Amino acid sequence: MILATLLYRMSHLLVGVLAVTQLRRGHPVQYAGVALAVGLSVLTFGAALQRGWFDRWHVGADVLLAGCVLPFVLWGWGGSHSSDSLGWAMLIGTSGMAVAAIALDRLQAVAALVVLALTHLIAYFLVDARAGVLVGHLSSLVSSAAIAGIFWWYLRRQGHLLDEANVRAVEAEVHRARYAERLAHHRALHDTVLATLTALAAGGIDGNSSQVRERCAREAAYLRRLIQRTSDELPHHTVGASLEEAVGSVESLGLRVTTQYHALPEVPPAAAAALADATREALNNVRRQAGTGYAFLTAAGSDDGGIVITVVDRGTGFGLGNHVPGLGLRLSVYARMTEAGGRASVDSAPGEGVRVELRWPT
């Protein structure tokens, strides 16, 4: 709005300069009038550009001096006795009214419009201006104020709508982040604490063994960290160390895992954590559902700089056509790999065991 009204004022100042140099060449009062208008414009708009908005005292001075006093000065001492020679000063008042419409409050803007209209009517009567000139100028004065006011109202309204949309977007992002954090915690609990409790409840392992007690202590420490800190504060490991930790956690519950690693690449911590957690859940599924106590884990770097991990068992298997993935497979394997930028696939047949492949990146 400052720039728009500044351009409006500059167009009127240009008219004033051309009018003075062409119609009243050499008249000092006319040049003084232009200098006054330029000085008030520099004061009003210069301060507005520096501060970010108009100063009401500057706007009031511009309306009174340039809009109300200047026409009478030019009529009395500048030789402006016709509407043509006085018109440029009236235009200065028109652009001053546009600024007043947006910089002053409603009552002050109305008062400025009334004062400018009365003084301009009087000035035009003094130079015997035609009725068409009077009506046209008053229409221009009112329309300048109305257009500037409506434009300013529209911009503020759009700004409010944008602020509200930003607030809603921020709230949605906060909600999404909280949901993602809860989901990550639920997956971690499903893969660790819940798997341990399920194994203990099934009675397939000795709860007093040193391995089980060590696993319970490790998962109790994890729960304490989960309460005290967020997941991104937990230490990050290389993909090899993360896989070994996953294998160790399921071996403590009685599953024997044969592992083979080859040329493991460096991967981002988030990807390493996703790969290890998905591997842990795949091994937990072997222990719970495959009907065998053995699993085979292979991890190797791929040609594209990524990594491929396979978890294979020789258990009962299942038919893929009628199989509906359970909660652990959907959330802890498929979804986790997708979110990390990788993918997971499962191949199985009745009596042929299960092969889970984890690939990062996709």
Task: Describe the structure concisely.
The chain is α+β, with helices and mostly antiparallel strands and 362 residues long. It has 11 helices and 5 strands. The chain has 2 domains: 2-162, no CATH class; 238-360, Heat Shock Protein 90 (2-Layer Sandwich).
Write the layout of secondary structure elements.
Blueprint: H1 2-23, H2 28-51, H3 56-77, H4 83-103, H5 106-126, H6 131-191, H7 193-202, H8 210-228, H9 239-251, E1 256-262, H10 269-289, E2 294-301, E3 307-313, H11 327-339, E4 343-348, E5 354-360
Parallel strand pairs: 1-2
Antiparallel strand pairs: 2-3, 3-5, 4-5
Helix pairs in contact: 1-2, 1-4, 2-3, 3-4, 3-5, 4-5, 4-6, 5-6, 9-10, 10-11
Identify the notable features of this structure and list them briefly:
362 residues; alpha+beta; Heat Shock Protein 90; 2 domains; five-stranded mixed beta sheet; 68% helix; rod-shaped
Write up this protein.
This protein is an alpha+beta fold. The chain is built from 11 helices and 5 strands. The chain folds into 2 domains: 2-162, no CATH class; 238-360, Histidine kinase-like ATPase, C-terminal domain (Heat Shock Protein 90). The protein has helices spanning 2-23, 28-51, 56-77, 83-103, 106-126, 131-191, 193-202, 210-228, 239-251, 269-289, 327-339, and strands at residues 256-262, 294-301, 307-313, 343-348, 354-360. It has a 5-stranded mixed beta sheet with strand order 1-2-3-5-4, with helices on one face. Strand 4 (343-348) and strand 5 form a beta hairpin. The model is unreliable at 229-235 (pLDDT under 50).
